[in-house]
Amino acid sequence: MTSAYLYAAARTPFGRFGGALADVRPDDLAAIALKGVLAKVPALDPAAIEDVVWGCANQAGEDNRNVGRMAVLLAGLPVSVPATTVNRLCGSSLDAAIIGSRAIESGDADVVVAGGVESMTRAPWVLPKPSRAFPAGNVTAVSTTLGWRLVNENMPPEWTVSLGEANELLGEKFGISRVRQDEFAATSHNRADAAWSSGFYDPLVVPVPGVALARDEGIRPGSSAAALERLKPSFRPDGTITAGNASPLNDGASALVLGSAAAADRIGGAPIARIAGRGVSAVEPPMFGYAPVEAADRALARAGITWADVSAVELNEAFAVQSLACVDAWDIDPAIVNAKGGAIAIGHPLGASGGRILGTLAARLRESGDRWGVAAICIGVGQALAVVLENVS
């Protein structure tokens, strides 16, 4: 089998819920990210793209009907370029990259574009369709922005608690204090601000036409644990999770160009990183935040390395508490985790976050010259994904 490589990465800035990107449709966001990443490999003939694999967690509104294919058409790519859309909730675009890398390794393709999109602002309310015409009673519109919806009554109720309550349970299990969570969140904001100020994100982020958003909208420069500790708990009166130490609702898109070594001439440049290992894991649904522990360990084993070899980690910060639980379990230096900020500051548009962390990880390895890095993401309903990258730049 051949190896799969990452050649280019791009994303839009991530907007806040109801913020700068609120008027931009998700299929348009996806097309912008797709055009943006292809602009980084101008020698690549778009007709040579053998598949586009796109992640999206919602797919209930303007992102329905295979938003990956819609992005291909809206981006002006040849109609001969196929596309599919995958849904592994928060891990959707990392799953897309995994699927694309497997296609390359198996020889089914030499050039694949992967990515993902989410507009949590534009996620619609939905009404369940009645079994029979014209029911006499009322029906309830359900928000599709986040979390469980239209829950099957056969699902155990302890599995269908809110994402916030699930992470309160996780914090209790591992004894992670509010103080640690607020300190972690403040660090995320300050690292993200420093990374933007240093120009780190400039090559990775493409503008959204017609929108005056120069960088990720949710970053709060100068954040401190002292300021965050004044926020009220969001899920329990005596809880530890607040709007300040959890990721917000966001809009955005990300994209990646993947290829074989033999495709370098067609793509028009050398690869950045090799997809060296992949891992997927699952746990009971309320413990989803802890699932990256096993996923990353599996990815490392498949890459043939250990945590002692790893110099950079991009762990999607769904909540500070679950991020801390994972870092504690891996027993790694927190300084190597999300050194350029994480989702608490940057944002977490569900279907786009996996592509963001993989592109950021590759850029970090390229900047430092270190060899090995891990990208990992927790996924609602008790799953996680991880990818090991080897720097080849």
List the SSEs and their pairings.
Layout (H helix, E strand, L loop, with lengths): L4 E7 L3 E2 L9 H13 L12 E5 L11 H8 L8 E4 L5 H15 L4 E9 L5 E2 L15 E2 L19 H12 L3 H21 L26 H4 L21 E10 L4 H4 L5 E10 L9 H12 L6 E6 L4 H11 L12 H4 L6 H16 L3 E8 L3 E9 L2
Parallel strand pairs: 3-4, 3-5, 10-11
Antiparallel strand pairs: 1-8, 1-9, 2-8, 5-8, 6-7, 9-12, 11-12
Helix pairs in contact: 1-2, 3-11
How is the main sheet built? 10 strands, mixed
H/E element sequence: EEHEHEHEEEHHHEHEHEHHHEE
Q: Write the CATH fold name of the domain at 5-122 and 248-391.
A: Peroxisomal Thiolase, Chain A, domain 1
SSE-based structural type: alpha+beta
CATH class of the domain at 5-122 and 248-391: Alpha Beta
Average pLDDT metric: 97
By CATH's scheme, which homologous superfamily of the domain at 5-122 and 248-391 applies?
A: Thiolase/Chalcone synthase
Unreliable segments of 5+ consecutive residues: none
The CATH architecture category of the domain at 5-122 and 248-391 equals: 3-Layer(aba) Sandwich
Tell me, briefly, the overall form: globular
> DSSP strand (E) fraction?
15-25%
Tell me the Rg in angstroms: 20 Å
Number of strands: 12
Q: Tally the helices: what do you get?
A: 11
Helix percentage: 25-40%
